[in-house]
Design brief:
Elements: H1 10-35, H2 47-56, H3 62-75, H4 79-84, H5 87-93, H6 100-117, H7 133-141, H8 148-159, H9 168-176, H10 186-195, H11 202-215, H12 234-240, H13 247-253, H14 259-267
Helix pairs in contact: 1-11, 2-3, 2-6, 2-8, 5-6, 7-8, 9-11
Length: 274
């Protein structure tokens, strides 16, 4: 029988928060330079459309979900028409987005809940703009099939509110950077990361980590040689920098006065292996 896990002391938790905050500041500064310091300015879609698009985006690519959303809006004049249509018909329309049978039923259930909750002004979710943030998250998460990521997407992109969506890219990059404790699950990651950010940092942090995850810090083969964060990246320090150096490169390292510095340049692509 394994011993119970001891709870970190308040002093250690405070120290961890300070380290996380210091690392986040450096991450935002460097990725901001790389990705032009993105800022939220206006909604990209109305809130109900954000809800529907996020459901369509589950377990598929952005291209497929965008295509399915465009087909849905083209096939039906309004949300009432989507709700009134046979579920199988809706599934046929959104089939390019994948998991069409599941998503069509989920979309209709969400639309029904939203319509009932906004009977006086159907499908108007503008009240979320002024509702306390935690209450807004809870209201959205109370809809069928809506979790913390989708709730945060609606609040962030629909209203510019400081709710952090943690998708696969954000979770992967944040984990590799050491911004999350070991064995942190994605649900806890939402609250932990959001609490470490200032309100005006939430949008750029989300956008920058997604772009970095797509363009540099990919799941299978991260391009560490093109990353400006290797000195603050736990993954790079523990995994990449300790990886075996090719045989020819090892011989070349003996020819320089500072092999450690040479190795760093090699890993960053500044020197070709010989």
């Amino acid at each position: 029988m394994s011993a119970p896990r001891t709870r970190p002391s308040p002093r250690k938790l405070a120290a961890d928060r300070r380290r996380r905050r210091d690392r986040i500041v450096r991450v935002l500064d460097r990725l901001g330079e790389r990705y032009d310091h993105p800022r939220w300015s206006e909604p990209r879609l109305d809130p109900v459309s954000e809800l529907v698009l996020t459901i369509l985006s589950q377990n598929t690519s952005d291209t497929n979900s965008a295509r399915a959303f465009a087909l849905l809006r083209s096939a039906y004049p309004d949300w009432d028409a989507v709700l009134a249509a046979p579920t199988g018909q809706v599934a046929d329309v959104i089939r390019p987005g994948g998991l069409a049978n599941i998503k069509s039923a989920r979309i209709q259930r969400v639309l029904a809940e939203v319509r009932d909750a906004t009977a006086s002004t159907p499908y108007d979710l503008s009240f979320l703009a002024s509702m306390p943030l935690d209450q807004g998250k809870a209201w959205l998460a109370g809809l069928p099939g809506i979790g913390p990521k989708t709730a945060a997407i609606v609040l962030l992109f629909g209203f510019g509110r400081p709710a952090l969506p943690v998708d696969t890219h954000v979770f992967r990059v944040a984990t590799r950077l050491g911004l999350l404790p070991p064995r942190t699950d994605v649900v806890r990651a939402h609250s932990l990361l959001e609490a470490s950010l200032e309100p005006d940092e939430v949008y750029p942090f989300h956008v920058e980590l997604i772009r970095h995850g797509r363009e540099v810090c990919s799941a299978r083969r991260p391009a560490c040689e093109a990353c400006p964060l290797t000195d603050v990246c736990v993954y790079f320090q523990k995994v990449v920098s300790r990886a075996p150096v090719p045989r020819g490169a090892r011989r070349a390292a003996s020819e320089v006065s500072d092999p450690a510095a040479w190795r760093e340049k090699l890993l960053h692509g500044a020197l070709p292996p010989r």
